[in-house]
Design a protein that fits this description.
By secondary structure, the chain is an all-beta fold. It has strands at 6-11, 14-19, 25-27, 59-63, 69-74, 77-82, 89-90, 97-103, 109-116, 120-127, 134-135, 143-148, 154-159, 176-183, 190-196. A four-stranded antiparallel beta sheet has the order 4-5-6-7, with no helix packed on it. A four-stranded antiparallel beta sheet has the order 8-9-10-11, with no helix packed on it.
């Protein structure tokens, strides 16, 4: 205001006056005549669902040790194609979301991690030729980025602190992360390194 004793501001769709010495507020009544043209909303036809569709993105692509196959995740599941351009085929079964597939050094086994809201996540392996997956971890948690040892006997991966089980959503929400190791045949995980999450 010109006398510097009050400030006029807008909040809550109204105009208010704030007294500088006390901070007391009061509303300034006003009326306004408005003419506004409202058009009908657009509702374009969209096809939802259907027997098939083309995925426009793949994640975690991984070239096989012999260079003849490409492993990747698409639409939540693990697929493989024979290079240079074979048709994709799913190498896993089940409904859980699958992430970060990785080849064993001999190219015969694939490791991947899963996530389910009710059950949590696990590390799994499956024959590259296809078949029933084998669960390798015993304790559900948030796991990521498995990698086989050079001899194929162990798998190293990232494990969260359990934040996802407490309602947080991603590994970025974890107060700390662990690098853990598990036998390629399954068993208890062993912590190799624990680090604070700088995020």
């Amino acid at each position: 205001m010109p006398d510097s004793k009050a400030i006029v501001a807008s909040w809550g769709g109204k105009i208010g006056r704030i007294e500088v010495p006390t901070g007391a507020t009061s509303m300034i009544p006003f009326t306004v005549k408005v003419e506004q043209r409202v058009e009908d909303a657009l509702h374009p036809a969209r096809r939802i669902g259907g027997p098939s569709f083309s995925s426009r993105m793949i994640r975690w692509p991984s070239l096989s040790p012999d260079g003849r196959g490409l492993l990747f995740q698409a639409v939540g599941h693990t697929y493989m194609i024979a290079l240079p351009g074979g048709p994709p085929r799913r190498v896993t079964t089940g409904d859980a979301l699958e992430y970060a597939p990785a080849w064993s050094p001999d190219g015969k086994t694939i490791a991947f991690v899963t996530w389910e809201e009710a059950e949590g996540g696990h590390l799994w392996s499956v024959p590259a030729a296809g078949g029933a997956p084998t669960r390798l971890t015993r304790t559900p948690d948030q796991y990521a980025n498995p990698s086989f040892s050079a001899d194929g006997r162990r798998i190293v991966l990232v494990r969260g602190s359990g934040a996802a089980r407490r309602g947080d959503e991603t590994l970025g929400d974890e107060p700390y992360l662990r690098i853990v190791m598990v036998d390629a045949s399954g068993g208890e995980t062993r912590t190799v390194l624990q680090t604070d999450n700088p995020g």
